[in-house]
Design goal:
By secondary structure, chain A is an alpha+beta fold. Chain A is built from four helices and eight strands; from the N terminus they run H-E-E-E-E-H-H-H-E-E-E-E. Chain A is rod-shaped and about 95 Å long. Chain B has a single domain, classed as 3-Layer(aba) Sandwich (Rossmann fold). The chains are: A alpha+beta, B alpha+beta.
Chain lengths: 154, 180
């Protein structure tokens, strides 16, 4: 019995000292861009024609998400099952229930973005090109009002 | 002495029953959640196309994780009558999946010590409208097989079906069923 108890304690301590596992990945973030101008003009996004003002389009880029995985006991993830096992085994499971037999993963978005540099240009005949650099960071919408200036007569 | 032997015998029987209950009860953690844009209201005939599945774990595996999840998700969507297939008219949603955590685990380790050799999978899915490309929602799902008996052999594969079911359950909750 003593040997079994000592072995149990060793196993418990070995499990409870497991460090949490971390990692990260990038998820898609999106900002709805709307562009307006007077007069109406052709809109290019990163030198690619996307339409005529007024227009609305989604900008896709990426946001970092931190992943933390920790080992937890069944009491934390499935307390009902832990209780059932304790009752079903007439309490024998109880000391073993301290073993972190399950894992929990939390995903936390970070303020780290990539591929979020965009250049928007608006061209209308007889007007100077209007240009704007954008670096969205999780905003739902960005509204641009292009100020088109007439080309000089010279 | 006889009484002691009887007590010891009962205790051994209880231990055996307890051990069998724990070992035979293959289980682990299950969690899944979905977030949708406040203005997103899908109608009953919304269908979902299985988009790209990518391995974002930072590890490489012998098994083709992407194909296994693609197959599992296709099967579950089909079961729920939510699968979009080529030729169907109208806009639909495209689901792109990132496998952000995967550990195939080991059934023998699980049997030896609960929590050791767990099979683990965590997914992040993104849903976009096919026409506009607008991101309308995301689903996160996490599943483990942390302990259990011999029948958890193969959990490294079957966990894909289970987690795909979790994802589709979240989608089904958002998309109303069309009766008739």
């Amino acid at each position: 019995m003593k040997r079994a108890a000592i072995a149990g304690l060793i196993l418990l301590s070995a499990c409870s000292t497991q460090p949490p596992e971390q990692g990260s990945f990038f998820r898609t973030a999106q900002t709805q861009l709307s562009v307006q101008s007077t007069p109406s003009g052709n809109v290019n996004l990163d030198n690619r024609y996307v339409g005529v003002t007024p227009l609305s389009l989604p900008l896709d880029y990426e946001q970092q998400v931190e992943r933390d995985t920790t080992n937890v006991t069944l009491w934390q993830t499935q307390p009902g099952l832990a209780l059932f096992l304790t009752l079903a085994t007439l309490g024998i499971y109880l000391p073993f229930s301290a073993i972190p037999a399950a894992s929990q993963t939390t995903l936390t978005p970070q303020d780290v973005y990539r591929h979020n540099q965009f250049q928007v240009t608006v061209d209308a005949p007889g007007y100077e090109q209007w240009k704007q650099e954008l670096d969205p960071k999780g905003e739902k919408t960005v509204e641009l009002q292009a100020q088109l200036v007439k080309k000089s007569e010279n | 002495m006889t009484r002691f032997a009887s007590c010891a015998g009962n205790f051994a029987l209880l231990c055996l029953l307890g051990g069998l209950a724990i070992a035979g009860f293959g289980c682990g953690a299950v969690s899944h959640s979905a977030q949708f844009e406040p203005g997103f209201v899908p109608n009953g005939d919304t269908r979902i196309e299985v988009g790209p599945v990518t391995n974002e774990t930072g590890k490489t595996f012998d098994a083709d994780l992407q194909q296994m999840f693609t197959d599992a998700l296709t099967e579950q969507l089909q079961k729920q009558n939510l699968l979009w297939t080529q030729g169907l008219q109208g806009d639909h949603l495209i689901i792109a999946t990132k496998i952000v955590e995967y550990d195939e685990g080991n059934a023998f380790k699980r049997w030896t010590l609960p929590g050791w050799g767990s099979t683990v999978i965590t997914l992040h899915c993104e849903l976009k409208e096919s026409g506009s490309g607008k991101l309308v929602g995301s689903v996160e799902a996490h599943r483990t097989v942390s302990f259990g008996g011999a029948y958890t052999i193969g959990a490294w594969k079957t966990i894909f079906g289970s987690v795909a079911e979790d994802v589709v359950k979240e989608l089904r909750a958002q998309i109303p069923t069309v009766s008739g």
